[in-house]
Recover the amino acids of this structure.
């Protein structure tokens, strides 16, 4: 296995902040008209049970990710029922999600998935358990390989 250069601080940027919303179209319109953000990407992630929209924060490369449930059984529906709309996760960009996950496990941090899963736009993701991160759900995001990344 080729070893990538993992930064000592593990994360390369704040990738996005996930916001749970009840209605994705209404939320997109609000972020566009109120905050002047641009819709950068939109998709349905059946595996995660969400409709999602990435709203670009200027030209920073960071986004606000709007997450709406596809069913009453999805984790976002549960989050909305428990907490109402609002911040659901903080996502950090990483060079290699497997290596960062392993480093975090060695440091005693629990991750939600044994093996990373597909995220937005074919990224690879894992999550740090909120009980091991001060009550915050932390997402690790490895962007897809490609010329634009």
């Amino acid at each position: 296995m080729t070893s990538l250069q993992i930064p000592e601080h593990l994360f390369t940027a704040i990738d996005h902040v996930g916001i749970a919303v009840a209605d994705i179209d209404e939320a997109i319109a609000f972020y566009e008209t109120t905050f002047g953000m641009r819709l950068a990407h939109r998709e349905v992630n059946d595996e995660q049970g969400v409709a999602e929209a990435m709203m670009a924060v200027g030209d920073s490369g960071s986004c606000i990710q709007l997450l709406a449930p596809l069913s009453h059984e999805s984790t976002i529906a549960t989050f909305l029922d428990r907490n109402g709309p609002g911040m659901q996760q903080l996502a950090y960009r990483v060079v290699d999600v497997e290596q960062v996950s392993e480093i975090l496990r060695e440091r005693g941090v629990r991750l939600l998935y044994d093996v990373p899963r597909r995220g937005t736009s074919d990224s690879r993701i894992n999550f740090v358990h909120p009980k091991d991160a001060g009550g915050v759900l932390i997402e690790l995001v490895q962007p897809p390989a490609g010329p634009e990344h």
